[in-house]
Amino acid sequence: MSRRYELIAPVYDVVSGEYPVYRTGRTLGIDLLGPRPGDQVLDVGCGTGLNLPALQQRIGPGGVIVGVDRSPAMLAAAARRARRHGWTNVVLVAADAVESGADRLAERITAAGGRAETDAALASYALSLMPEWDRAWAATLALVRPGGRVAVVDMREPTVAAWRPLARWACRLGGADITAHPWSAVERDGLQVVAAQAWAGHLQARAATVPARGGS
Questions:
Q1: Among 107, 134, 158, 192, which residue's beta carbon has the most beta carbons within 10 A?
Q2: Dist. CA 187–CA 206, nearest whole Å
Q3: pLDDT digit string (tens) for 138-188?
Q4: How far apart are CA 72 and CA 95, in angstroms?
């Protein structure tokens, strides 16, 4: 998987179907997440930084975006995007959210200049790429402060039958498991869950408030 994204990083924004399909899901997820000025937002599986523009509009120059990705080539593309726009509040961390766990991930984030505890976290089209996505989710949830917000955007088969072969092909091309449904973890672990969908249900977004540690 990592090798695939190393190879396609230079053209990912063009071949990923970002326009017109998958940008819609990013917008839904960030709207549901509702980051505020000054927040630190953790972008899990940030890739080439496609979430950066919309997040920057929400958090402003006083906030921080911490992008985590296991692919150096994707992170390099995200860094170029940040430099091109003059965004000095972007912290990029090379890490595998599944293998690192919350403690090691927190160490890497603080070493890079971010805070160990974050105000909000977003995983867009990232968890379904991970065979053990529940471990990445657990690490992400542990890094968000109680009362903070989490959001997941991902894919399932659309309700329109004619669209299903194309959706399956797109997921196979990107290495995503269309049956993973990782937004179910938001529904299970969060409070005050809100939901949105688009493209005949192919894109699913969930967001919630993080409960107190050990609470519900």
A1: 158
A2: 7
A3: 999 999 999 999 999 999 999 999 999 999 988 888 889 999 999 999 999
A4: 9
DSSP secondary structure string, the chain?
Answer: -HHHHHHHGGGHHHHS-IIIIIHHHHHHHHHHH---TT-EEEEET-TTTTTHHHHHHHH-TTSEEEEEES-HHHHHHHHHHHHHHT-TTEEEEE--HHHHHHHHHHHHHHHHT--SSEEEEEEES-GGG-TTHHHHHHHHHHHEEEEEEEEEEEE---SSGGGHHHHHHHHHHHT--TT--TTHHHHHH-EEEEEEEETTTTEEEEEEEPPPTT--
Q: Which amino acid is at 208?
A: A
pLDDT tier at 216, thresholds 50, 70, 90: very low
The torsion region of residue 207 among left (phi > 0), alpha (psi -120 to 50) and beta comes to: beta
Q: What structural domains does the chain harbor?
A: 2-209 (3.40.50.150)
Nearest C-alpha neighbor of 210 from the set 64, 57, 102, 63: 102
82-95 residue pLDDT tens: 999 999 999 999 99
Cβ proximity of 22 and 123 under 8 Å: no
Whole-prediction pTM? 0.92
